[in-house]
Design goal:
By secondary structure, the protein is mainly β. It has no helices and eleven strands.
């Protein structure tokens, strides 16, 4: 499934900590139930390809769909896992492992994966882009 978010708009919503988005505005992308646990989905948000991941705990992470090493738009097809308490995704191309929260590459020094703030509000997944 590919999800296309609504057109960009100004949004005054705050995240769970009461903060405005660090970058851009909040875009409603899909419902939480549209995302399978421990699986990725691609979404077009404000003209950017983003990979969304819902964990078994219902936490949602948003990262750049573009693989920083292979430069293909494939990260939604990555393998979800963890390193200790850190949720991760491994690139489906060469299996580089990235922290879903920070984008840090964990298996070797390298280019990080861009991340976006994500939240669930009233059952809807929102991404700041």
């Amino acid at each position: 499934m590919t999800i296309t978010a609504e057109a960009p708009r100004t949004d005054t919503l705050r995240d769970h900590a009461g903060l405005a988005p660090a970058e851009g505005v909040w875009h409603s992308v899909c419902t939480l139930s549209d995302l399978e646990p421990n699986w990725g989905e691609a979404a077009l948000v404000a003209g950017r390809q983003i990979a969304l991941f819902r964990l078994a705990t219902d936490e949602v992470y948003a990262v750049e769909q573009r693989d920083p090493v292979g430069e293909a738009y494939v990260m939604a097809r990555g393998i979800v896992g963890s390193r200790g308490e850190r949720p991760t995704v491994a690139s489906p191309l060469h299996k580089e492992v990235y922290d879903l929260a920070t984008g840090e590459r964990l298996d070797a020094p390298g280019i990080p994966l861009a991340t976006f703030r994500a939240r669930v509000v009233d059952g809807r997944v929102q991404v700041a882009a």
